[in-house]
Amino acid sequence: EDKVVQSPLSLVVHEGDTVTLNCSYEVTNFRSLLWYKQEKKAPTFLFMLTSSGIEKKSGRLSSILDKKELFSILNITATQTGDSAIYLCAPGRVDAGNMLTFGGGTRLMVKP
Amino acid sequence: EAQVTQNPRYLITVTGKKLTVTCSQNMNHEYMSWYRQDPGLGLRQIYYSMNVEVTDKGDVPEGYKVSRKEKRNFPLILESPSPNQTSLYFCASSPRDYHLAYGYTFGSGTRLTVV
Fold first, then answer.
1. Is the pLDDT of residue B98 over 90?
2. Does B50 contact A31 at a Cβ distance shorter than 8 Å?
3. Is the dihedral of CA B31, B10, B115, B79 positive or negative?
4. Quick one: which of A38, A56, B50, B97 has the fewest CB in 10 Å?
5. What confidence tier does B101 reach under pLDDT thresholds 50, 70, 90?
6. Sign of CA dihedral A66, A70, A71, A72
7. Is there a contact between A104 and B40 if contact means CB atoms under 8 Å apart?
8. Are B94 and B74 in contact (CB under 8 A)?
9. Is the Cβ–Cβ distance between B32 and B48 less than 8 Å?
10. Contacts with A104 (C-beta within 8 Å, 6 or more apart), sequence order
């Protein structure tokens, strides 16, 4: 059975701090790993990672995948209150209808 | 605007009263899926559809039905809702090869309460 574990479950930081969110996975026929940000409504796409060791960046957010050790991290530097959200990682499989298996999420709260 | 539209956004119903949550996408996506989200459990897949008339079970299909008679629509049916189906539901769609399309597009969610 596929398994995705995110840590920490929740995190409270102050503006300007740097945070690292972790995602470990066990997924058969792994294809890629996606990160989503969920504020009050639907998850919105952040990154898709398919290759190990290649960092993807978008502004203050960056992410990297390690396919050997089966984990990914999401870094957020110089956090802002607008970064407060639940961050979800979702490894995707080649088969099973492109199914994504979502982790339980990390709830990040950034205080002013 | 490219989007996935779910209705209703909020619904309170009683145990055993059949209900349907609609989902429609205007992006000509082949793949559609339903998820439920419960605190601490992330999103769990209920059913998915690879194309018209093709549906399959996800991780938590019990108590749900779906149909895919047209490409754009993928309704979720609860024949006899129970309180343990109280949850936040999301519909999602993507082109068949989602890796080219940056993941799924999600609807805005339906918060269902069964009393």
1. no
2. no
3. negative
4. B97
5. very low
6. positive
7. yes
8. no
9. yes
10. A4, A5, A6, A9, B40, B41, B42
Q: DSSP secondary-structure letter at B104?
A: P
Q: Are A89 and A74 in contact (CB under 8 A)?
A: yes
The residue type at A102: F
Residue A3 is encoded by which pair of tokens? Answer: 């398994």
**How buried is residue A28: exposed, middle or buried, by Cβ count under 10 Å (0-12/13-18/19+)?**
exposed
Torsion of CA A7, A55, B101, B77, to 10 degrees: 0
B39: amino acid identity, one letter: P
- The residue type found at B10 is Y
CB spacing of A104 vs B108 below 8 angstroms: no
Closest chain A residue to B100, measured at CA: A48
Report the residue count for chain A. Answer: 112
Whole-number average pLDDT of chain B: 91
